[in-house]
Amino acid sequence: MELLSPIDTIKGVGEKTTKLFNKLGVYTIEDILLFFPRTYLVYPDPVEPDKDNVNANIAISARIKSAPKIFRTKNRLDVLQATAFCENTSVDIAWFNSNYLKSNIEPGKVYIFYGKTVLNNGRFKMTQPLIFEPEKYLEIQKTVQPIYHLTKGLSNNAISKVVREALGRCKIDDNRLPKELEDKRDFISYSKAIQAYHFPENFDELVKARKRLAYEELFFFILNSRLQEEGNVSYPNNFKIIHHNKTDEFQSSLGFELTEDQNKVLSDIREDITGKYVTQRLIQGDVGSGKTIVAFLAMLDVALSGYQAAIMAPTEVLAKQHYNGFLQWTKEHGLDIPVALFTGSMKVSEKKAMQKLVDENESCIIVGTHALISDGREFNNLALVITDEQHRFGVQQRDKLSSKGERPHIIVMSATPIPRTLAMILYGNMHVSIIKTMPANRLPIKTCVIKEGMRKTAYKFVSDEVEKGHQAYIICPLVEASETTEAQNVTDYSKKLKEVFKDKYSIGVLHGKMKPAEKNEIMADFANKNIDILVSTTVVEVGVNVPNATVMMIENANRFGLAALHQLRGRVGRGDAQSYCILMNASSDGNESKRLNIMLKSNDGFYIAREDLKLRGPGDMFGVRQSGEFSFKVADIYQDADELEMASEDASYILEKDPNLENHLELRSTLNSFLTNQFYVL
Ligand code: ADP
Ligand code: MG
Description:
Blueprint: H1 15-23, H2 29-33, E1 39-41, E2 57-64, E3 69-72, E4 78-85, E5 90-96, E6 110-120, E7 123-127, E8 130-132, H3 134-141, E9 145-147, H4 156-169, H5 179-185, H6 190-198, H7 203-232, H8 245-252, H9 260-273, E10 280-285, H10 291-304, E11 308-312, H11 316-332, E12 339-342, H12 348-360, E13 364-368, E14 382-387, H13 395-402, E15 409-414, H14 420-426, E16 431-435, E17 446-450, H15 455-467, E18 471-475, H16 490-500, E19 507-510, H17 516-527, E20 533-536, E21 549-554, H18 562-569, E22 580-584, H19 590-601, H20 605-615, H21 618-621, H22 641-657, H23 665-677
Parallel strand pairs: 5-7, 10-15, 10-16, 11-13, 11-14, 12-13, 14-15, 17-22, 18-20, 18-21, 19-20, 21-22
Antiparallel strand pairs: 1-9, 2-4, 2-6, 3-4, 4-5, 6-7, 6-8
Helix pairs in contact: 6-7, 7-22, 9-10, 11-17, 18-20, 19-20
The structure holds adenosine-5'-diphosphate and magnesium ion (MG).
Adenosine-5'-diphosphate binds next to helix 10.
């Protein structure tokens, strides 16, 4: 069996299954081998259910005293119900549409149940638990089970089987790295690593497999980016861009001084755009550090020099926010620079009008979402393209934006907090500028973690802030009520909130299922203070700037990764007033409060991400990705920091001796096949 054979060459994979695999991005044998588990499961020792382990997956050992009963709910769901007796407590168990289980369960016998318990009106409940005979459970406890991303119709078991078959029938070539690196690093072999990453015998082996695969990924990534760097430097800069005195005039009438870091970044960019070569620069600055104004000043120089500059943002809300901000700036300061906007939800006639504006003005500023890069959109005079929140875009999308001009200068902006040295390793082909300090008027955000019992106080606090003329965000994990998860949803929550505040305040709702135009309207209302409290899902996470908002309350905060909480918290603390972040912890798991408490210790996103990892258990380690910036299959820049350093050192070593890999043809071809398999971002 060949690596590139289609997956239907595997026994038992017919037309229907092939289609399902295709949905998961799996087409070939190689794809399935590289379709790595999302996380792993080690079945835990059985415990007694108590209030400290509710809402988490646990195993209980319990006796079923009388035969399970079947009944039918209003919406015609069959429920199989039983009561399971542990040592001191009993648990109500329910399975949906699983009547066949009834005959397998013997009254009087002890079973192990694995699943999530919840506490409901003083009773423990478990829905849809897995059920095992005790001896079988002991056996299965010795293994590490892969858990894959699924699609409807394709079970975890079915995927495991196909992977196993592919592993058994396919020969994986182990000659991937130069021999001297293999010897120096002494990782387990590639084929062994692939095998063990799917089906590890134990955690030890899994860690070894991960080391090898993460190292490889990082090595090829860095190698490629250094090779590109070689090829990049020499495009001459034919744009005649000057540092314009009108930009300075504008800057001095802004009403605030740029911070030292902002000034430094701006002068870095000016060196680029007025320099000899076309350049690519990464601007990194934590949320709220003020990247937008720097981008605008650079675009202004470009436009005043007679060219067009474009900025692409990942959401309509954000694009609209930039557009309105830029319009206001140009109007208020009498700058004769047209600003155009392109977003998906605009009417055809509006887009036409904008395109006309661009066609008729050699110099202008262009703002938009992905709509900027859609086919047919043309810009004739682009000298600078900027991607905001760059991790939300793929390489191709960014390339496509630059291809709308003739080798324009490129800036990408990111709020992922990584140290400079790391950024230089990862973005070898870019110049890196970092905005470290926050604008001087900022007070650090005060954060607290609270439990349900403090809800009233929290609402009183929100109301006090609103009375002062400020605004608040309240974040809920869900859009609407769900049968399987007990977490707050924006739909019901906003209704409840209206009652709590007796309709005194204007409450808005925002979530990802709304149409872009609706979302824009809500965000505009919030920005214009027509909405006091915005109840939202995490759609506000990226880039939204409403400096008058001073409270960020996050419901079910325990369900979010700390990196995400950090980004959310960054939506407040963007003005002069003291801001607050209230994290509602709905879990009674002690580890959860430990984790959330990290948020109290620091405002530094990098620190937070690393501490979060330290607290996670081994099974967790494989599931979370702290940074959305790089979509590696295995590697994570925080978790695999050691391998990252090795990879960087080794890539330099190889390229020093052989800058174009002319004497490493095998390595070059492995690199090429790696690149076609990877959808990473650079
Ligand atoms: P981000 O880096 O997260 O994109 P923004 O560019 O949206 O941050 O800036 C956040 C807020 O800070 C904006 O309201 C902006 O006008 C303001 N701001 C930016 N720079 C300064 C500064 N030097 N002094 C005071 N406020 C600033
Ligand atoms: Mg921003």
